[in-house]
Design goal:
Blueprint: H1 11-33, H2 40-51, E1 56-59, H3 66-76, E2 81-85, H4 93-96, E3 97-103, E4 109-115, E5 122-126, H5 133-136, H6 140-145, E6 147-150, E7 153-156, E8 162-167, H7 180-183, E9 188-191, H8 197-206, H9 221-233, H10 238-250, H11 258-262, E10 264-266, H12 270-286, H13 294-305, E11 310-311, H14 313-317, H15 322-331
Parallel strand pairs: 1-8, 1-9, 2-5, 5-8
Antiparallel strand pairs: 3-4, 6-7, 10-11
Helix pairs in contact: 2-12, 10-12, 10-13, 12-13, 13-15
């Protein structure tokens, strides 16, 4: 079996580190399961996004535990967490901070920078699409370059730095669509659906009494960074690399397939392939495996691609959605 350049690293060391990381991840999953009922797929994808070192966008109607999931992850992963409630009147300075003028006892004046809540290891951007596009774009530099610029001065963000944003469906009143450039910064878009009856019964029984379960810290932020570096060292089979290339390139309007020609307006760029490479490794480790498979690519195709492509009017007329197109393109990997 042929592997990418990651396989040049000492395989025995990777195996030992992977075993320990898999054990830590299992403890993390157990802690999350004590306070989040149902939503197993959403929990898995969100944790995979963090293990891969990226940001995630959680989409769903209010009341599906999006905010609680983010708070739980911050506690369990030992991350310094801050929360911003996005509202229509939120300003960019409310996110990145601003300069204020100080005056000393001699009357001399100078500017002092006061950091905003973006200076956190885990930033919860709650209801991100309720703020104006100008305010949403204040996160662009932070999410991609891991620093912000204020008055021409660079200010580095803490490490690690992750943004977990929640979003209400766009058809709801008082929401704004996120700019395409910002959407591309999210490693995955994770959709939360209504829980099944057993999960909803557990919610009713466990969250309406006098005592509620609280998560405990499992690892420190430095340990999370070690796992993130390990994931980048994991070998990727050539078959997985080819599947990623085939899938991403087939989702572009100039690709040689019927959906591309008839339904796709614009498609994913190379950053989508990078996201799939990292997320397939993270998903493999999440499940206790040492290398990803093509099945990982198929499982992650929708959350990685759906916010990185758009369909044309012909697709709407035909009743075709983004998920339908991705599903068909994924089937072609067989």
């Amino acid at each position: 079996m042929n592997f990418t350049a990651a396989s040049k690293i000492d395989p025995d060391a990777v195996i030992r580190a992977a075993d320990q990381a898999a054990s830590d991840i299992n403890l993390i999953r157990q802690q999350i399961g004590q306070v989040i009922y149902g939503q197993e797929q959403a929990v898995e994808n969100t944790l995979v996004a963090l293990l891969a070192g990226g940001h995630a966008l959680l989409v769903g109607v209010p009341g599906l535990a999006k905010t609680r999931l983010v708070e739980t992850l911050g506690t369990v992963l030992g991350l310094d967490e801050k929360r911003i409630q996005f509202t229509p009147d939120l300003m960019p300075s409310d996110i990145i901070g601003s300069e204020v003028m100080d005056q000393d006892s001699d009357g001399r004046r100078s500017f002092r920078y006061i950091k905003g809540p973006v200076f956190a290891q885990l930033l919860m951007a709650d209801e991100i699409n309720r703020a104006s596009p100008r305010t949403q774009s204040a996160l662009l530099q932070a999410m991609q370059e891991y620093h912000v610029s204020v008055a021409g001065q660079r200010h580095d963000l803490p490490s690690p730095f992750h943004v977990l944003a929640t979003q209400n469906p766009l058809e709801q009143e008082g929401t704004y669509p996120l700019p395409e450039a910002q959407l591309d910064r999210f490693l995955m878009q994770i959709d939360l659906d209504y829980p099944d009856i057993d999960a909803e019964r557990a919610v009713l029984l466990n969250t309406t009494g006098t005592m509620q379960a609280r998560p405990a810290k499992v690892i420190e932020a430095t340990r999370l960074q070690e796992i993130q570096q390990l994931i980048r060292q994991m070998p990727v089979p050539e078959t997985v690399l080819e599947a990623i290339l085939k899938l991403v390139r087939s989702a572009r309007p100039d690709a040689d397939n019927d959906h591309a020609k008839n339904h796709i307006s614009w498609g994913p760029g190379p950053r989508a392939g990078q996201a799939l490479m990292l997320c397939t490794r993270a998903r493999a480790l999440y499940e206790g495996r040492l290398a990803p498979s093509v099945d990982d690519v198929k499982a992650l195709a929708e959350p990685v691609l759906q916010h990185r492509m758009a369909l044309n009017f012909a697709a709407r007329a035909d009743g075709v959605g983004v998920r339908d197109v991705i599903a068909k393109l994924t089937q072609a990997l067989n």
